[in-house]
Amino acid sequence: MYKSRIKTIFLALSVTIMAGGLITFPQESFEASIRGLNMWWEIVFPSLLPFFIMSEMLIGFGVVKFIGVLLEPLMRPLFKVPGVGGFVWAMGMASGYPSGAKLTARLRQEKQLTRIEAERLVSFTNSSNPLFIFGAVSIGFFYNPNLGIILASSHYLGNFCVGLLMRFHGKKENLEKKPKRSTLSIKQALRELHRTRIKEKRPLGKLLGDAVLSSIQTLLMIGGFIILFSVINKLLYHMKITGLLAKGVEYVLVLLGFPDVLSIPLISGMFEITLGSQMTSGVQEATLMQQAIITSFILAFCGFSVQAQVASILSETDIRFYPFFFARIAHGFLAGFITFVLWNPVYEGMHMFGRPSNSYPVSAGQDAGWETTLYHAATNAGPLITIGFLVIYIILYAARSRK
């Protein structure tokens, strides 16, 4: 009862402070809101929508079940999750946050995962996609494509280690029967593929329409969280709360040999990864290795913005949020440590083999490679794709409402 009252007071006070901040800093709030909106409709919506729609179709036609049977001998011993977790893991890496949570929740609703298995799976299948790491962070913020190799390696290796760590989650409360040892069987996989397709009674048009509606509804929710946390991050900075929180972080950074000026970018990154990564790249007092370690932590922790998106998605199921939050903290420290370990042999090694290792090797007039081209193409085409699919969503939703 006492804890409940404290929570009520805390939540009411927090919302009141944020409302006061909106009134006090209207211009800054508006700019932050526009920034979050641009990020959503230029990058997030067009990059995630195809993966969400295709994932729904693959689940409906039994392809995921087919992949699950094939990957069962790999995923079960390593991570103690069913083989379908391999599909979620791959899609999570390819499409980025919060695809892993979306697919895990979907499979849990279909009873393809137990609650404990879903909590294990969601903890290591949410990651940043390669386009964001190479295009936005490495090239867009640091002007250094070589840095993307270090950031991506530490990010995905760290998530793999989190998966191995989380296999021990739920041992005491998981009272289910141990699954039988499975072997690779193409015949069994094809049988499950056919059985799942037969169970799906919806015609192709209905299945596709449902996939589009469900995907766009999820992306609208994600867009709301991105805009909200962009505003919150800006308000916390102008209300001096970020600086106050950074004071406690400064002592830890100094003990580790990092400059204290990295504290504010780190705190900002714990709320929103894009802003935190951008601020980290602008700290001139830090070495490139120190910037890379902090950026790796920010990417792995994935910010309260993404975590709120995941919490909202998981709330539709019985999957608990706290294992995911613990995994994000573990992933942050693991990614930072792996960046430190790989720096000399990998990043400095590229310099030895003739690849430049300076902080800013890409000038405005140089071609930075496929990552830059792809990133800018996605950014330019993003708004048109977003508007087009929102129109389709409105048409489909109106047609369903009439029925």
From TrEMBL:
Domain of life, source organism: Bacteria
Domain Nucleoside transporter/FeoB GTPase Gate, residue spans: 44-140, 219-314
Spans traversing the lipid bilayer: 48-71, 121-143, 207-231, 251-271, 292-315, 321-343, 381-399
Keywords, alphabetical: Membrane, Transmembrane, Transmembrane helix
Pfam families: Gate
NCBIfam families per record: spore_ylbJ (TIGR02871)
Protein name, as recorded: Sporulation integral membrane protein YlbJ
Species per Swiss-Prot/TrEMBL record: Peribacillus saganii
Taxonomic lineage of the native organism: Bacteria, Bacillati, Bacillota, Bacilli, Bacillales
